[in-house]
Amino acid sequence: MNHPDDLEISRREFLVMGTAAVAVTMLPPLAEAQAPPAAPVVKPAAVKLAFNVNGKARELEVDTRTTLLDALREHLNLTGSKKGCDQGQCGACTVLVGGRRIVSCLTLAVMHQGDSITTIEGLGTPDHLHPMQAAFVKCDGFQCGYCTPGQICSAVAMLQEVKAGIPSHATSDLTAAPQLTPAELRERMSGNICRCGAYSNIAEAITEVAGRTA
Amino acid sequence: MKAFTFERANSPAEAAAAAVRNPGSRFIAGGTNLLDLMKLEIETPSHLIDVNGLALDKIEATAEGGLRIGALVRNTDLAADERVRRDYGVLARALVAGATGQLRNMATTAGNLLQRTRCPYFYDTNQPCNKRAPGSGCGAIGGFSRQHAIVGVSEACIATHPSDMAVAMRVLDAVVETIRPDGSTRSIPIAEFHRLPGDEPHIDHLLTPGELITAVTLPKPAGGKQIYLKVRDRASFAFALISVAAIIFPDGTGRVALGGVAHKPWRVEEAESEMPRGAKALTARLLAGAKPTPENAFKLKLVERALASVLAEAKGA
Ligand SMILES: Cc1cc2nc3c(=O)[nH]c(=O)nc-3n(C[C@H](O)[C@H](O)[C@H](O)COP(=O)(O)OP(=O)(O)OC[C@H]3O[C@@H](n4cnc5c(N)ncnc54)[C@H](O)[C@@H]3O)c2cc1C
Ligand code: SF4
Ligand code: FES
Ligand code: FES
């Protein structure tokens, strides 16, 4: 029997071929002249990469197509960051690069040569929780927990953004220093979706940490 | 995703030259649009040129009293710049109305201008789409077209340009600065930068192969009351159904550009003389010749009401 991966690939290739065949039969002759020149087919390419993850220097060799999220999860076994949508729409894969929050599914690992990356595993440990992790536990800021690593990384960086005076859609006066009102908190965390709907407890946990650090 | 080779560019001229040396190459900046489309094999570059190392991440004052925004300035940093918040409020507002905190930290000024349509048929490779596969037809015409364009449409394509930032850039009369593979540079007014679909909807803008955006410049501050109103299906983290970027002066005159209604940020300078006469007259001129579908005809009324709201806000009502 086929290995499940082989099966997956052959089915996919079959589908791609199928679409191409349909497209060709449907195309009026004009289309060929208008079509942009096809990119040459290249072989998968591996690239060497060195960066710092959670305070440790790491070296990897990855296929150029590897996203930062897949490099962290599949190559470095840091499975705390989650893959929810792989399209930038859910925030489950949020990590910090140079202290700034980004979605790691929409960036390539090879774009992070020399960068410093912090994942949920680097924020705190089970024995020494980061204050945001502790607040999520205390306030019950989750149900299934799938969105939680992304929520916590996002929240930590979000508080820094408010401190740095970065405006949001909820900021009423663009020229004044933003305050973390409930409306501001919700708007600034809108990139982290929680399928379980634990939002009110998530907001409570973040508010508690914000109050303490203010 | 199709396989590709990868290089990091060290200077703008080198990046542009590398692009013509490698047919089928693309620049990658934030990656938030390109990578999304590469995963779906809608974009299939065989070579990526990472431009993130280019020193194009500064916002500088120009001799004319305006601002020169480097192509790699992130959306977050542009919205947070003190001069932008004070003098170009419509731009700061448009930026923070787009995407999410994480995405704005990644998205660049050039990448935002060049993001591709969010037409669901463009995204679904099982559907016909003249923009993705020229000559295959348009799934949206006669299909689900609630989000689509109402003005400047063609028989081939009714897609909209999804950027919020570009609508503000249009009302501010921004200029796009580029460098070409032969080392020559040019300045393209934002009005001419994006095109209408016509019978070549696969071409979104005027850039030629290998042409790299280096900066976007803004003229000196226009003053006036600057407003960006985005109407969407949910309060946050959604693309615009329609949007209004406006600069309105105390005497009731002003400028206005619309998002979500056309293949490019929509501005009709001749219509702006109607502004003091109110939203109805202004809308009639702005959207003259509109060709909505039964599903998106609501946008005509929505634009008028959004303009009425913006004009009232400018009066301080
Ligand atoms: C979930 C989600 C929600 C979003 N919501 C919104 C929204 O509400 N409003 C909104 O406006 N946008 C929204 N966006 C889109 C986002 O703003 C764009 O994806 C982003 O601005 C693109 O910038 P980038 O730097 O990541 O571009 P990339 O993905 O790196 O590049 C985009 C294109 O630009 C080209 N390019 C990049 N830099 C240059 C250069 N210097 N010269 C020439 N070509 C260049 C690339 O080759 C590519 O073709 C959303 C995106 C996502 C994923
Ligand atoms: S509207 Fe344009 S982008 Fe959408 S399906 Fe038609 S051709 Fe494609
Ligand atoms: S997995 Fe990255 S945003 Fe959903
Ligand atoms: S806790 Fe389940 S998705 Fe948020």
Can you tell me about this structure?
The complex is a heterodimer of chains A (214) and B (317). Chain A has 214 residues and is of the alpha+beta class. Chain A is 41% helix and 13% strand. Chain A has helices at residues 4-26, 30-34, 68-75, 120-123, 131-139, 148-163, 182-188, 199-213, and strands at residues 46-53, 56-63, 94-97, 100-103, 116-118. A five-stranded mixed sheet of chain A has the order 2-1-5-3-4, with helices on both faces. In chain A, helix 5 packs across helix 8. Chain A starts with a helix and ends with a helix. Residues 1-35 of chain A have low confidence and may be disordered. In chain B, a hairpin with a 5-residue loop joins strand 10 and strand 11 (254-259). The relative contact order of chain B is 0.13. The mean pLDDT of chain B is 97. At the A-B interface, helix 1, helix 2, strand 4, helix 6 and helix 7 of A face strand 1, helix 2, strand 3, helix 3 and helix 5 of B. The structure holds flavin-adenine dinucleotide, iron/sulfur cluster and FE2/S2 (inorganic) cluster (FES) (2 copies). Residues 142-148, 194-196, 198 of chain A line the site of one FE2/S2 (inorganic) cluster. Flavin-adenine dinucleotide is lined by residues 26-34, 36, 51, 71, 98-99, 103, 106-108, 110-112, 114-115, 162-165, 212-213, 239 of chain B.
